[in-house]
């Protein structure tokens, strides 16, 4: 898990985060030095709780909590 604090519209901060869970598929990609494929895997396994920082930022912008120029 990692996070970046973004300026919230109206003041304060809100985290944009990334969650990568260690699954057998993730472990295999890392072992095979195919880490460039992790982003695609995170997209297909979002229902398992994984989320990219890009998707988290997009969600914050869509919800009106963060200005698009912040990302």
Describe this structure in words.
There is one protein chain. The protein has about 70 residues and is of the alpha+beta class. Helix content is about 35%, strand content about 15%. The protein is built from three helices and two strands. A two-stranded antiparallel sheet has the order 1-2. The chain is elongated and about 45 Å long. The chain starts with a strand and ends in a 9-residue tail after the last helix.
Q: How helix-rich are the residues, as a percent range?
A: 25-40%
Measure the end-to-end span. 18 Å
Number of helices: 3
Q: Which class do the helix and strand fractions yield?
A: alpha+beta
Low-pLDDT windows of residues: none
Order of helices and strands: EEHHH
| Cross-sheet strand order for the largest sheet | 1-2
Strand runs, count: 2
Structural domains: how many: 1
Cα shape:
elongated
Largest sheet: 2 strands, antiparallel
Q: Give the averaged pLDDT, no decimals.
A: 92
């Amino acid at each position: 898990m990692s996070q970046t604090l973004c300026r919230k519209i109206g003041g304060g901060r809100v985290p944009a985060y990334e969650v990568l869970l260690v699954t057998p598929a993730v472990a295999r990609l890392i072992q095979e030095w195919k880490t460039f494929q992790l982003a695609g895997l995170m997209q297909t396994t979002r229902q398992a709780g994984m989320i990219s920082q890009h998707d988290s930022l997009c969600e914050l912008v869509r919800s009106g909590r963060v200005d698009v120029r912040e990302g």
